[in-house]
Automatic annotation (TrEMBL), chains A, B:
PANTHER family: TRIOKINASE/FMN CYCLASE (PTHR28629), TRIOKINASE_FMN CYCLASE (PTHR28629:SF4)
Enzyme class: transferase
Protein name per UniProt: Dihydroxyacetone kinase subunit DhaK
Domain DhaK: 7-330
Length: 332, 332
C-alpha cells in the first residue's frame, strides 16, 4: 500500500486536522469529530447536517459552508459516524428552527442517524431526515436494504442547503431534499478496486481486462462484470440504466454530474462527459447544468459515476444560488 | 491499461469535446484545438494565453474564464502545443492591448510559444512571455534547461489574470506574472508512475516500497529514490527544499498549494496539508491562503506537490479577486 498516511488508525483525525488548517472559515471539532460552519449556530436558520464513512471526500466535510451543509460528521473510513458524534454536530448547528439530516441509505448510517435524531428530539430539537437512495444499479446491496445513496447526495445538500440559507422552514427544506432525491438517478462503473488504509490491499479482485458495472462507492458488487471496452460503450452502460429508471420527458432539463471515483484523470472524465452528453441529447434530454470532477469518491478507485437529476426552474434557481464550501463554490 | 478512452490517438480531442459540452461559457475550437472565453476578444483587455501538453488537467483549459486565462492550447498528452495552435488562440483573444503567454519551462513549450510569439508579432500583436520555472527539485531535467514549471503556473495564471481583468496594461500584467513566479517554489513526490493512453504502461518503474522524491509532472526523475515512509516524513521531504530555496522572512504571508498528481485521495492530501502546515508554522511562515486538491496533475500518478508563494497585500488582493473557470471559481 502506497499512501500518504502515518498510522492508518489516525488517518481520519489527521485529515480533519488538515481541513482545520486549510479552512479557517470552518470549525473542526477534533474530539467529537465533526466539521461545522464557523458562524454556527445561526439563529432561526434550519440546520443541515450530513455525514457518513470517510473515503468519499470532498463529500461530506468538503460541502460545509454557506449555502450548503452546516455540519458534517465523518465516520472512520467506510464506517458510519456514531450517534453521539451526529448528536454533537446537530446541537452545534441548531438555531431553534430544527435540523435536517441528510443520510445516504446504508444500514449503519440510517441506524446511527436515527438514534441521533431520537437523542436530539429528547433535547427538544426538531429533526427531519432526508434519505438519499439514488443508485439504480441494484435494489439491495452489501450494506443496504433498498437502493444505495451516492452522487445525488451532493445535489440534495446543495439544493436543500440553498433553501435553508434563504430562511425556509424545516418542512420545506426537508421536502425539497426529498424531491431532489426522487428526481435523481445514479449509476457507477469501476475500472479498479480501492484500498482502505486499514486493509492495505484492494477491497476486491478485478481482472486487468474487466470492469465492475454498477459498482457501489465502497466497492460493493454491481450488476455484472464485463470486459473492458471503449469509453463510448461504457458511457452507454452507465446512461441506459438511468434513462430506464428515470422517466425523463423530451426536452426536460436536468443537472448532470459526471463524477470521478478518485483515481481517474479529469481528461477521461471529460471524454465520458462528451459521450454521455451525446447519448442524453439523442434521448431528448436537455443538460441545463453540469459538474465534471471528483465529488463523491471511493478512495483511490479508478472509475466514474453518472448522476442525472430532473429539475424545474425553482430547483435550478436553488442550484445556482451562491455557495461557499471547500468542494463546491460559486457566487461568493 | 484501464482508461476511459476510445482510440488513444483521439483522447485530447474527445476530452475537448467534453469540455465544450460541459461548459457553454467557453468556446472550444476543435479544429485548431484551443479553448477560449466565449466573450473573447475583449477590446482593450490584455489577453492571457497558456498551454502545454495535456494530462495535467484542470491545467490549462480548466483555468479559462473571467479573472484567469482568456485561452488555453492543449497539446497532445505530455506534448507541447504547436505554434499554429498557439497563434490561433493568441489571435482569438487579442483585443488590441497585447497578449501575455504563460509558458511552463519545458524545451518544446518554450520553443513553440516563441515561434508563435514571432508569428503574432508579424501580425502586429504585441506579446510578452512569462516563463514559469518554480520546481526547485532539479536544475535541469529530461525536457528542461533550467528548472521545470509546475504548480506555480496556477498562481501566475490567477494573479496575472486578475490584473488583466482590471484593465492593466501589457507590461504590468507580464510583470506581476513574472513576480509571482519568482516568489514561488514547488517540490513534488510520486508514489506511483503514470500511464499515458498512447503508451499503455507506466512511464517508469517504481518499486512497491519506494517513492520518487522531486519528481516532475511527466514522471521525470527527481533528486532521489527513497523508501516509502510515513506522511509526516514525506511532508518534511517536500517542505525543506522549498524553505531552503526560497528565503521566507519570519511571519511573511504565503499562499500554499497542496496539489494532488491525479490518483491521490483528497483525504491523503489533507493529511499532508496538516503536516506541511505544522512544518511551515514551525518555520515562522504564515499561511495566508491555501488550496488543497488536484490542480496540476500527471494523469493517474499517485503523488502530490507543494507550492509556496510569498505574497504581499497586492498579490493577495489579486488572488482574492473574482474568478470563474471550470477548475477555480470564487466571487462570481
Amino acid at each position: 500500500m502506497k499512501k500518504f498516511v502515518n498510522d492508518p488508525a489516525d488517518v481520519v483525525r489527521e485529515a480533519l486536522a488538515g481541513v482545520a488548517a486549510a479552512h479557517p472559515d470552518l470549525r473542526v471539532d477534533l474530539a467529537e469529530q465533526f466539521v461545522v460552519r464557523a458562524d454556527a449556530p445561526r439563529t432561526g436558520k434550519v440546520g443541515l447536517v450530513s455525514g457518513g464513512g470517510s473515503g468519499h471526500e470532498p463529500l461530506h466535510a468538503g460541502f460545509v459552508g454557506p449555502g450548503m451543509l452546516d455540519a458534517a460528521c465523518p465516520g472512520e473510513v467506510f464506517t458510519s459516524p456514531v450517534p453521539d458524534q451526529i448528536l454533537a454536530a446537530t446541537k452545534a448547528v441548531d438555531g431553534g428552527a430544527g435540523v435536517v439530516h441528510v443520510v445516504k441509505n446504508y444500514t449503519g448510517d440510517v441506524m446511527n442517524f436515527q438514534l441521533a435524531a431520537e437523542l436530539a428530539a429528547d433535547e427538544g430539537i426538531r429533526i427531519e431526515t432526508v434519505l438519499v437512495d439514488d443508485d439504480v444499479a441494484v435494489e439491495d446491496s452489501t450494506w443496504t436494504a433498498g437502493r444505495r445513496g451516492t452522487g445525488a447526495t451532493l445535489l440534495v445538500e446543495k439544493i436543500a442547503g440553498a433553501l435553508a440559507e434563504e430562511g425556509a422552514p424545516l418542512a420545506d427544506v426537508a421536502a425539497v431534499g426529498r424531491r431532489v432525491n426522487e428526481l435523481s438517478a445514479s449509476f457507477a462503473v469501476a475500472l479498479t478496486a480501492c484500498t482502505t488504509p486499514a486493509a492495505g490491499r484492494p477491497g476486491f479482485e478485478l481482472p486487468d481486462d474487466e470492469i465492475e458495472v454498477g459498482v457501489g462507492i465502497h466497492g460493493e458488487p454491481g450488476r455484472s462484470r464485463q470486459k473492458l471496452r471503449p469509453a463510448k460503450e461504457i458511457a452507454a452502460l452507465v446512461t441506459e440504466p438511468i434513462l430506464t429508471a428515470e422517466p425523463i420527458a423530451s426536452g426536460e432539463p436536468v443537472i448532470v454530474l459526471v463524477n470521478g471515483l478518485g483515481a481517474t484523470p479529469l481528461m477521461e472524465l471529460y471524454v465520458m462527459f462528451g459521450e454521455i452528453a451525446r447519448l442524453l441529447d439523442a434521448a431528448g434530454v436537455r443538460i441545463a447544468r453540469s459538474l465534471v470532477g471528483d465529488y463523491v469518491t471511493s478512495l483511490d478507485m479508478a472509475g466514474m459515476s453518472l448522476t442525472v437529476c430532473r429539475v424545474d426552474d425553482e430547483l435550478l434557481r436553488l442550484w445556482d444560488a451562491p455557495v461557499r464550501t471547500p468542494g463546491l463554490r460559486w457566487g461568493m
